Amino acid sequence: MREMEIVIEKARPLGAVYTKPWVVELVLSLAGYEVSSNLVDARAVEPSVGEGAFLVPMVARLLNSCRAQGRPWLDCLDSLRAYDVDATALRRCRRRLLRLLQEAGISDTTAEVLLKAWLVEADYLLLVGRTTANPVHTPQLFDRPALAGVDFVIGNPPYVRVEGIPEPLNAQYRQLFPTMRGRADLYVGFYEAALRQLRPGGVCAYICADRWMVNQYGETLRRYIAAGFAVETLLEMHQTAAFEEEVNAYPAISVIRRAPQGAAVVASATNDLEQVLGTRIIEHLTTVRQAAITALLPGLTAALVPEWFPAGEPWTRTTPARMALLAHLEQHFEPLVSATTGTRVGIGVATGADAVFFTSNPDQVETAHQLRLARPADVRTGQLVWGGQWLISPWHQGKLTDFSGRPRLHAHLAAHRAQLQGRHVAKKNPAAWYRTIDKVDEQLYRRSKLYIPDIKNTLFPVLDRGETYPDHNLYFITSDAWDLEVLGGLLLSDVGTFFVACYGVRMRGGYLRMQAQYLRKIRVPTPDAITPPHAEALRHAFRTRDVAAATAAAVAVYGISHLWPAV
Fold it and tell me: Which of 89, 141, 357, 360 is deepest in the core (most CB within 10 A)?
């Protein structure tokens, strides 16, 4: 039978942000939710339906599949379930679906029966969490127990930061979904809920912010996936306008199946991909999977990764050549952070009230509590050029001061007491209302250290010879064994940036986050394994800010000349 030609209406109510139709169609196809399949007997879930950005195209495909099989429309009764807590959005979605069903020639009576079954006003997380809390309890999210277990969970889960989830609802979610650890956003719970529902062979396909793939709060979810699921496809879309309106997110399409892990396709898209037919994208990715090669397609680079990452480890999204290099470096070299060399990575002081603790007039407090402050602007040139800002430290010799003999410090902080008491850190310990969030380490102030600005397109180490204290936008590296200029040369090189690029998040404009968790992933040789000529080359490159010379010396030190050209 001829496939139905269905025009999908686009609604744009105030405040709504939808996934673009071409991206929706791509997600559906990557999941295998295709008209050529038997979608009638499959079980599909849209966990956060909104006004139907995903559900309407899903219903269009379902109806075409039903017609192609010559099946009665009511056979689709249990083919779909869509959930949302927003009754208004559901009503709008219902109107769109009703029009779609009417255009397909379905009677109003049958349409009403289908819509009543498909659309459910409910909190998906609470529903799934309570029905699957007992591992031996089969998820019964469809009406009849015989239909338990889901073939597809597809959608764009809500992106809500932990601060935006009201209590005690947040507490309920975290009790029901153990993967929501630390500062995990709401979408982490949506991943776990979807994966719980899947029957063997079932697929979860989401377009969602991808920070959980590399950040610390996503570790538990990554472990959960590694224990029983297979990552099939990851398509990074940071450089793609995937949504109807510009949003501050770094999306990726993930396709995860309840099956043993095999090879995975990793890919990256640009805006040029929007001009490519979805069928060509799927054919391209299929070619990559089957032939283990990267085929050319405008707006898309892709490669086959033969093995996935160990449980809990961050998921790098890179090519096989880069992964081979990364595996080699991790096998033959030790982490930068080391008890043997006394090397540590940290971040500068967070205060919760910079206007109180940062000043250009240090004479407000006693000299012992004045520390020169280093900020990103001070290291912009590659050399530390102090900008004249001071840190007012309420700490002394590792302890919070009691103000004895420090009347000026007391007067300064007391003048801002109301503001300081309003911070979370002060509410946790009211007696320490004037503390900074982080403890100020006076020994760090006097130590030589490398500063690493947070947001740069390359790793950018700058030497401080014990002259300043870093603010919270600077990371620092100290070491007992390293000549910091030699280490600085290694980090300045493209090899140093390579580690961060593999594990970190690349923002719009190509910038990388140089967070401590990524810096700790850097592997280095032992200081005594570097020959004097190589050490001098790295030192000179660091002093002159010569990235090319630093890279040449680093490639020689790591012994990766046979691998580096492939990168």
Answer: 357
